[in-house]
Amino acid sequence: MTSQTPPADLLLLVQQFEQDVASAHQLLQRHQALSANEAGNLSLRLPGQERLLIAAFNGPDAGRAAVLDFDLEQSQGRLNDNLREVAALHVAIYRQRPQVRAVIHTHSPYLSAFAIAGRPLRAHASQLLGVLDEDQEIPLTAWGPRYAPEPVIAALQAHPRAPATLLANHGPFAWSERDALAATRLLINLEESAHLTWLAAQLGTPQPFPAGAAARSRQGWVAS
Fold first, then answer.
1. What is the CATH number of the domain that holds 61?
2. How many domains does the chain have?
3. Predicted TM-score (pTM) of this structure
4. Which of 3, 6, 44, 194 holds its CA 20 to 30 A away from the CA of 169?
5. Per the domain annotation, does 81 fall within a domain?
6. pLDDT tens-place string over residues 107-134
7. In angstroms, how far apart are the furthest CA atoms of the chain?
8. What values do phi and psi take at 51, rounded to 5?
9. pLDDT in tens, 5-56
10. Number of Cα atoms under 13 Å in the Cβ half of residue 55
């Protein structure tokens, strides 16, 4: 059994989350990490509970949070069918990664292009060495109908250290153990890495890092 958040505390969490959704939206716009229709959503797991806050970046209820149990039955706030459907995938990620606090999904152009091309995102750009080793990748899931959780669950099980995944023929999901804005910044870094990798492919073959590059880079970051 998980404890329920007192109503007053829940109201404060909802207000803070909606502020973070607005900030995340601005960051994504500034870094051109949204599709033309700004489709996407962001969620936050309530501490110690099997409940989440979730909000969309577009649509008539953009930025407004709904509270939803992991069983997808009990909710507070306005929750349309599309947001309830994608919430099932957010829940699947929280269950596979109990330490995760926030999950973000967008149709950001370059990450979505990798997903549509059927290609994982390998660590070619230096930004990825902060979250991946040089021989790792942001995995591509198998195809599934709409927001079926099974392909994403399989990818998370096969890549236990991955901080994100590309839903085949669709787009990215990324997550953070910290908060909603950390998940947003991670997705922006991934989108920039996908863009740079795509540009590099126009010039030739994107080159891998040498063995040990990630560890050496992290030592430098700590030292600085």
1. 3.40.225.10
2. 1
3. 0.91
4. 44
5. yes
6. 999 999 999 999 999 988 888 887 888 7
7. 57
8. -145, 155
9. 767 799 999 999 999 999 999 999 999 999 999 999 999 999 999 999 999 9
10. 23
